[in-house]
Amino acid sequence: MSAPRVFVARLVGCTVFDPQGDRLGKVRDVVVVYRRADPPQVVGLVVEIPGRRRVFVSIGRVTSIGSGQIITTGLINVRRFEQRASETRVIAEMLGRRVVLADGSGEATIEDVAIEESGLGEWEVGQLFVRKPKTGASPFGKGPTVFVQWSDVRERVKLGESQSASQLIATYSDMKPADLANTLLDLPQARMLEVAEELPDERLADVLEEMPEHQQVNILGTLDDDRAADVLDAMQPDDAADLIAQLSDERGEALLELMQPEEADDVRRLLEYEPDTAGGLMTPEPIILSADATVAEGLALIRRHELAPALGAAVCVTLPPYEPPTGRFLGMVHFQRMLRYPPHERLGTLIDQSLDPVTTDTPAAEVTRILASYNLVSVPVVDHNHRLVGVVTIDDVLDHLLPDDWRSSESTRAHKRAAAVRRTVTTATSSIPIKTRTGRARRFGNGTTD
Fold first, then answer.
1. CA 423 to CA 129: how far, in whole Å?
2. Which residues share a beta bridge with 387?
3. Residue 150 CA, distance from chain mean position
4. Alpha helices in 6-51 (DSSP H)
5. Every domain of the chain and the residues it spans
6. pLDDT 10s digits, 169-227
């Protein structure tokens, strides 16, 4: 039985089912249209289906809303959702808006919106959960919250004033970076930039890594140099290098000067390599240990929560120093092998003798062939003095092979490209098509470009 009143923020992430109980996707937003006298009417839901594609589900196709799930008739138009001029998204656009209370008590900010069933298959905005400004002088705490009817408020937007994005960010706080990036890309441009501006540096860095390069440049262009440098510091060095390579020489060098020296050094090294080489693809922060380190030490390092799975699949063993470029590279120890030996076993005795490293100038096509031929998750990269400088992981290669617009492609095209990738990684080196990331091989700091 449908719930008489549902708060929209609680709907985000709820699973959508067809009548047979098969999962169709997850709710990402609710779409309403304003009416002259009556409360806004709900016209449908924005639902994310497999493939991270967002589609529109008409409210007339919804048979039940409640208990953390949505039941539909099962008939869904899988065309990508495109917002019409008359439509408003509750999560993306209404939350954070300021309203004036009709009782004369002043302004408040919308923190949640309740929708109510007004008739069979018809829903409209009912109550609003709003927060009033703080009344005390204390810098701690927030203002009081109240429930009000839509008829008891009127929206107030001053010319040139942007609505706060903080409530939207809080609603999406549990989203994975890739999902949040996809959500931001679906927002109107101005709203996307507002949300990006209010995201914490590390969260924004994670989101930028999942966006197309032109959108990365667009967002970074709205940030002042100090904030932009902080975000670049929080990004993976290879992603930061790709982004800086898209900027003008002047701004790229300015941002590198503002970054933390260690982070900037990693990025500068990556910018020296051609994009279609192992040096241009690699991640310069692998796990590095000495031959005398134990299995226990190796496993402790790969357990770190922030470590990407591909990087945690193996430990690199080198002579000192243990920061890239290291001493002579000795080999890799795969984590599965570490699991088969006692904690006190030395890593030097577990090195995979069959795996040879690639050099920084090894073509990307050859790196791809090696990963595919030997079923590897990563391959070490050394310089011409056999010093370890990084590793190329499978996700680095996939990101390089896929087209620039892969994040926004429709599922049918995505399936075709996935098939193409599968064919690519099993083809001989000479026939592997590689996408070139333009502008990567630039050397900042000496005034020259390649």
1. 53
2. 328
3. 35
4. 8-11
5. 5-155, 173-272, 288-399
6. 777 777 888 888 888 888 878 888 888 988 999 999 999 998 988 899 999 999 999 99
Q: Which of 282, 289, 353 is nearest to 321 (CA)?
A: 289
Q: Report how far apart, in Å, the C-alpha atoms of 264 and of each of 38, 61, 281, 345, 403 are.
A: 56, 53, 17, 36, 28
* Predicted local distance difference test score (pLDDT) of residue 422: 43
Contacts of 258 (CB under 8 A, 6+ apart): 225, 226, 228, 229
Count other C-beta atoms under 10 Å from residue 57's C-beta: 24
Q: Is 439 in a helix, a strand, or coil?
A: coil
Query: DSSP code of 91?
Result: I
Q: Which alpha helices (H) appear in 43-200, and where do they start and end?
A: 166-171, 177-186, 189-198
Kindly report the pTM of this predicted structure: 0.67
Per-residue pLDDT tens for 328-359? 999 999 999 999 999 999 999 999 989 999 99
Find the mean pLDDT for residues 70-84.
86
Residue that the structure tokens 């000067």 belong to: 257
- 288-399 classified as CATH 3.10.580.10: yes
- In Å, the largest CA–CA distance within the chain is 78
Domain at 173-272: CATH architecture = Alpha Horseshoe (1.25)
Asked if CATH classification 2.30.30.240 holds for the domain at 5-155, the reply, yes or no, is yes
Q: What is the Cα–Cα distance from 31 to 299, expressed in whole angstroms?
A: 48
Residue 128, φ and ψ in degrees, nearest 5:
-120, 140
Dihedral sign for Cα 69, 73, 77, 81, please: negative
Cβ neighbours, 10 Å, residue 409: 18
Which residue, 3, 7, 21, is CA-closest to 117?
3
How far is the C-alpha of 174 from the C-alpha of 33, rounded, in Å? 28
User: Other CB atoms closer than 10 Å to residue 357's CB: what's the count?
Assistant: 20
Task: Pull the structure tokens for residue 439.
Answer: 């502008």
